[in-house]
Amino acid sequence: MPQVDIRKRLISVEEIFHEGGPRANKPLRRVVGLAVIKNPFAGRYVEEITPFMEDLRPLGLDLARDMVKALGGDRSIVEGYGKGIIVGAAGELEHGALWHAPGGYAMREVLGDTKAIVPSSKKVGGLGARLDVPVTHVNASYVRSHFDSIEVGLPDGPRADEMLVALVMTTGARIHNRAGGLKASEIKGEDGLR
């Protein structure tokens, strides 16, 4: 399979201090890692595409490591994560499915012993398309305070023959979360759900 041809990358950190209520003692930090890459399957149908997942693995690891560095280098502060991909218009949705394993397993490897599945979203879109990437707690998907989404995208990508891959991480619950449910302090850590 071809090597991954990266046109551009972006690591971005957002800090949220409040959502109209009282100021948080510590801001919620949300980091996004994006890469715009060439889609080797654009414009044609290819039956066997799964080997490209192995080619994507180093990119996932690099993005995840750089995201942790952007948060100060301490992986233990990451409490939420998610992944997503926008496939350019000359590709197909199935090309986006190739990011599931390399993106998810990369974050799980870099963050250590996480239990929860990494939620994801994908779509086919044009230049400037945006994608809402879902976020859940890294160890228990039912922790309601960490249900979130982060909008990702770049104004000049993906081009028709490209894909925009995304990883997201957060350092905690939504600011002012008060919708009840399982608390992070109540996680049993047995199944990635509770």
UniProtKB/TrEMBL annotation:
Organism name: Dongia rigui
Task: Quote the protein name from its UniProt record.
Answer: Amino acid synthesis family protein
